[in-house]
Amino acid sequence: MATTVITGRDLSLTIDSKNYGDQCTSATLKVDLERNAYETIDGKVFFALDTTATLSITMLADWGASVGAGVSICEALWSAASSAPNTALAYTFTAASGAVFTGSVYPSFPDASGTGKDAQSVSFVLQGTAKPTLTIS
Q1: Considering the chain, what percentage of its residues have pLDDT values greater than 70?
Q2: What is the dihedral of CA 104, 110, 114, 115, to 10 degrees?
Q3: Does 95 fall in a domain?
Q4: For 41, what's the count of Cα atoms within 13 Å in the CB-facing half-sphere?
Q5: CA pair distance 107, 81, nearest whole angstrom
Q6: pTM (predicted TM-score)
Q7: How far is the C-alpha of 93 from the C-alpha of 105, rounded, in Å?
């Protein structure tokens, strides 16, 4: 079977029904499985306890910019984290290969920074509400 090369440009990212792939420079969906290990008289056994997910994003800053009919993701996340930090936002993380991860994340405050002549970027980590759903099409 031939290898399919998937690059970061083959990904799309939608948060709260708005596509941010055109300004996202890096996105990582990380899912961790918490497990206990027990030593029994028959040997070691493992028991899965919980699953956590985080969505880490670095993107071009869009403070004050209008995105489509809505506000920038920086402002939307800031507003949501200020007024409704326990209300989850839906996301879809899609690869061109047909892998689609969907779930919900809690908003957090994006960083605000700049470096010399470089474009301003923001980074933030969004805590998932549960394990994401994977669909392969």
Answers
A1: 89
A2: -60
A3: yes
A4: 0
A5: 5
A6: 0.80
A7: 12
